[in-house]
């Protein structure tokens, strides 16, 4: 797997450089039945699962290649509305997806792919003895949160409000990977992130708390109106929403959507 930096030709001044992770080559022309390149903008918390699914999609669709841009959903939505080239958008909340649909950049109605829930991530062994949200407000406990404009931050605020906890975070990050990085570097004692992110991170434990049930995030996915490969985009969305795709996602700790 390689990491490339590209610029949207019509929106370089507005969007800047996008970090794209490619599962395969991206020079094939668009084609039917899922062939050709597909560019997917996806929430950072989907990184591990979508990387796996991208490889499986390429194996099942000869001649295809999937390139990912993972990041905070709000930033990805802004990039899309400002002209960044993408075929599929998978967000970590309906609110960030609404930015794209309200701008007329979605091709059809988004579908809920999976759901996710917050936990308190702590180093293995939980040295700060965090047992719930109230412990995050103890003197001397340093906490990483996501910024409120991104889904993990909005969910954290909902959970903290439900628990009646007020705290001043040591850092506000633009996505869950940033919050986890602060924890793994030892700069904080705990981070409010998704259950799936802790499961994918060695050396960390998850502390469950009841208020997380008040802040469950739906993850919508949609083909984009300006998709360069609409057939490939639809094939990719169908693939990740298939029983096999949902199995990969639920194995990573995501919850299947209602009715699945």
Automatic annotation (TrEMBL):
It comes from the Bacteria. SUPFAM superfamilies: Periplasmic binding protein-like II. Residues 1-22 form the signal peptide. InterPro entries: ModA, ModA/WtpA. Keywords: Metal-binding, Signal. The keyword Metal-binding applies. Belongs to the bacterial solute-binding protein ModA family. This is Molybdate ABC transporter substrate-binding protein. It comes from Micromonospora aurantiaca.
